[in-house]
Design brief:
Elements: E1 10-15, E2 20-26, E3 33-37, E4 45-48, E5 52-57, E6 65-70, E7 76-78, E8 107-111, E9 114-121, E10 132-135, E11 142-143, E12 150-154, E13 170-174, E14 179-188, E15 191-196, E16 200-205, E17 209-213, H1 225-231, E18 233-234, E19 245-249, E20 254-263, E21 266-271, E22 274-279, E23 283-288, E24 290-294, E25 313-318, E26 323-332, E27 335-340, E28 344-349, E29 353-359, H2 362-366, E30 375-378, H3 383-386, E31 411-414, E32 419-421, E33 429-435, H4 440-455, E34 461-468, H5 472-482, E35 487-491, H6 495-499, E36 507-511, E37 517-521, H7 528-541
Parallel strand pairs: 18-30, 24-30, 33-34, 34-35
Antiparallel strand pairs: 1-2, 1-5, 2-3, 2-9, 3-4, 5-6, 6-7, 8-9, 8-12, 9-10, 10-11, 12-29, 13-14, 13-17, 14-15, 15-16, 17-23, 19-20, 19-23, 20-21, 21-22, 25-26, 25-29, 26-27, 27-28, 31-32, 31-35, 33-36, 36-37
Length: 544
C-alpha cells in the first residue's frame, strides 16, 4: 500500500534501471502495482512494485526518500526513511520485455520530470498526430499528451553513415525546421536553385529559407555574439528597406546586406548603396533575416500563418544529417511518417533516425541557434533623446569634454552623394548641427541657426547640418520642408553623433579656424541662439 505521506502528492518514482517519472501516485492497499499520473502522458503509468527502487518528493535532491519494503502479508509499503530495506527478490527479471524479444530499437525519452527507457508503439489514433510510448518497465503504453514536449533518443541506428554520393552535399535549412542536403546552383530574387539527391534541380523560395551553406568548414565558425547582436539591429536609416541576409565568411566574419545573386564563383551582396562581390569559396553560410519587433513599430511583421506553432509536432534528426518536422505524425511498422511543410508527404525508417523532438515547437528544442536567433529588430531612439535631462545644470556651451581640443575627424557623404572631409575646412569657422526629421526641436533649431548665420554675412561660416541615422530620402524631404541652405551630411550609422557626443537633439558644435572645438551647445533652451551668436562673433573678432 501507499502511505498518506506519498498518496496524492507530486512525487518522483525512481526505477531500478536508473530512470524516473514525476507525477501523482495512487494505489490500493494490497496492490502489487504503483500508478503514476504524469502530465506528459495521456494515461497514468502502471509499474510493478518490483521495478520501483524508491520514491521521493518531486525534484528533491536531498531530504526524505521512501524506499519500498516488504510486509509480512506479501504487500508493499512506502517506509520512512532511506533506512528501510528494499526487497531485492525478483529484481533480476525486472525487464518486462527484453530488447531481444522486440523488433523495436532501444530508446530513451527525456522531458521535464521524466527520463525513462522504452520504445515507440504503433500509433493508435492517426488523427491525433501524437506518438505512443511504451516504457520498458511499465505494464501499459500511453499516448503523449497534447501539451507535452521533450526528446526521444534512438539507440544504435542500423545505418549511421551519410551515403557516399552525398559526401560533398551541404546543408540547406528551412524556416519550418526541415533540413536537406544538396548542391547550390544559384541564388537570385526568386530564391535558391539547388540540386537535391534523387530529386534533381528544384527552386526553394526565399520566404521558406533559414540558411544555406556554401563552403564546408573544418571547425565550428567563431562568430562573436556581440557582432551578431549589432548586425541584427537595423539602423533607422534602413528601416524602410531593411537588409535581408547575413553572410558568414569561412573565418567567422559577418556582413549584413541583401544577396543580389550567386552566379558561378561570385556572390553579389548589396550593402546600403554599394554592390560587394565576394568569392564563393570565402563564404561559409548565408542566413535569411526576418523582422521580429521594433520600438517604433516600423518593422513589426506578423508571423505567417504557416509558422504559428501547432498543437503537436514531431521533429526528427536523421543519421544522414537531414532534419524534418512532421504534422500529423504517425508511427507504424517501424516507420515514422507525416506531412512536412517543406518536403510534403514524408516517411523514414526508424533505423535512420537519431533523435525525435516533440511538442508545440520542437525545432526550438533541437537547435542551439533557431531561426528566431537571427531575427532583426529596429534601432530605438536613444534614451537621451526621449527623456528629459536630470543631471545638474552647467553653463550652456561649456559642458563637453571636446572643448579646447582638435575637432575629431569627420568624413561623410553629403545628401548629393559627394564626399565631405572636415580636415579640408581648416582656416574656416565651421558649425556642425546634428538633427533628425523625427526631432521637432532640431528642425526648429535648423531654421533659427540659419537666421543667425545669415545675419553674420555670407561666406563667413561653413554650416554643416548632420542628419542622424536616416535615409537620404527622409533627409531630403525634411530639408525641403524646413527650407534651409546648409551642407547636409548623412550620419547613417550614428558614428559621428557618438564621436561628437550628440546625446540630445539639437546638438551644435562650433569649430574655430584652427580646427579646435570652442563651443558645444547640446540643449534646446531659449539661450542657445544667443550663445551661438556670441561664439561666432568672437571667432570673427579673432585675427585670421
Amino acid at each position: 500500500m501507499i502511505t498518506s505521506t506519498a498518496r496524492g502528492a507530486e512525487m518522483r518514482v525512481w526505477l531500478v534501471d536508473g530512470g524516473h517519472v514525476d507525477g501523482v501516485l495512487s494505489g490500493e492497499g494490497d496492490s502489487e502495482r504503483i500508478v503514476c499520473d504524469s502530465p506528459l502522458f495521456v494515461d497514468p503509468l502502471q509499474f510493478d512494485v518490483r521495478v520501483v527502487e524508491q520514491v521521493s518528493k518531486k525534484n528533491a535532491i536531498l531530504g526524505r526518500r521512501y524506499r519500498l519494503r516488504s510486509l509480512s502479508q506479501g504487500r508493499h509499503d512506502f517506509g520512512s526513511p532511506a533506512r528501510s530495506l528494499f526487497l531485492k527478490t525478483g529484481v533480476p527479471d525486472w525487464r518486462r520485455v527484453p530488447w531481444s524479444a522486440t523488433d523495436s530499437l532501444a530508446m530513451t525519452l527525456v522531458a521535464d520530470g521524466v527520463k525513462i527507457a522504452g520504445w515507440l508503439e504503433q500509433t493508435g489514433t492517426p488523427d491525433s498526430g501524437r506518438l505512443v510510448w511504451q516504457p520498458a518497465l511499465a505494464r501499459n503504453a500511453t499516448e503523449l499528451a497534447a501539451t507535452s514536449q521533450g526528446k526521444i533518443t534512438v539507440g544504435s541506428p542500423r545505418r549511421s553513415e551519410v551515403p557516399q554520393e552525398w559526401a560533398d552535399a551541404l546543408p540547406i535549412n528551412y524556416r519550418s525546421g526541415d533540413s536537406v542536403v544538396g548542391w547550390i546552383q544559384g541564388i537570385d530574387s526568386n530564391g535558391v536553385s539547388v540540386e537535391l539527391p534523387g530529386q534533381g534541380r528544384v527552386l526553394i523560395e526565399n520566404a521558406e529559407l533559414h540558411s544555406v551553406t556554401l563552403t564546408k568548414v573544418t571547425k565550428p565558425l567563431d562568430v562573436d555574439p556581440r557582432d551578431l547582436q549589432r548586425l541584427l539591429v537595423v539602423p533607422r536609416s534602413e528601416q524602410h528597406k531593411p537588409p535581408l541576409h547575413v553572410v558568414v565568411s569561412v573565418t567567422g566574419d559577418l556582413l549584413r546586406g541583401t544577396v543580389v545573386e550567386l552566379s558561378g564563383e561570385a556572390l553579389v551582396v548589396q550593402v546600403r548603396s554599394k554592390m560587394v562581390v565576394i568569392p564563393r569559396d570565402r563564404v561559409a553560410k548565408i542566413v535569411w533575416l526576418r523582422s521580429q519587433t521594433s520600438a517604433n513599430e516600423s518593422l513589426v511583421v506578423e508571423t505567417p500563418a504557416h509558422e504559428v506553432p501547432e498543437a503537436f509536432l514531431v521533429h526528427a534528426e536523421l543519421v544522414d544529417k537531414r532534419n524534418v518536422t512532421l504534422r500529423g505524425g504517425a508511427f507504424r511498422d517501424q516507420t515514422l511518417s507525416g506531412q512536412s511543410r517543406a518536403l510534403g508527404s514524408f516517411s523514414i525508417a526508424l533505423s535512420e533516425v537519431k533523435s525525435i523532438y516533440f511538442g508545440r515547437d520542437p525545432v526550438m528544442l533541437s537547435r542551439d541557434q533557431s531561426p528566431l536567433a537571427w531575427g532583426t529588430t529596429a534601432a530605438t531612439v536613444p534614451r537621451a533623446y526621449r527623456e528629459p535631462q536630470t543631471r545638474k545644470s552647467v553653463p550652456l556651451g561649456s559642458d563637453s569634454r571636446l572643448l579646447g581640443k582638435p575637432a575629431p575627424p569627420l568624413s561623410l557623404k553629403t545628401l548629393d552623394g559627394d564626399s565631405f572631409d572636415l580636415g579640408e575646412r581648416k582656416g574656416r569657422v565651421v558649425v556642425l548641427d546634428f538633427w533628425a526629421s523625427w526631432s521637432a526641436p532640431s528642425l526648429r533649431s535648423l531654421a533659427e541657426v540659419s537666421q543667425v548665420i545669415a545675419a553674420l554675412g555670407d561666406g563667413e561660416v561653413d554650416w554643416v547640418a548632420i542628419n542622424l541615422e536616416e535615409s537620404a530620402e527622409s533627409a531630403t524631404r525634411a530639408r525641403k520642408r524646413v527650407g534651409v541652405d546648409a551642407t547636409v551630411l548623412l550620419d547613417v550609422d550614428g558614428d559621428a553623433a557618438y564621436v561628437y557626443q550628440a546625446k540630445s537633439l539639437p546638438h551644435t558644435v562650433v569649430i574655430d579656424r584652427n580646427g579646435v572645438v570652442v563651443n558645444v551647445i547640446g540643449r534646446d533652451t531659449p539661450k542657445r541662439l544667443d550663445i551661438l551668436r556670441r561664439a561666432l562673433q568672437q571667432r570673427f573678432a579673432e585675427p585670421k
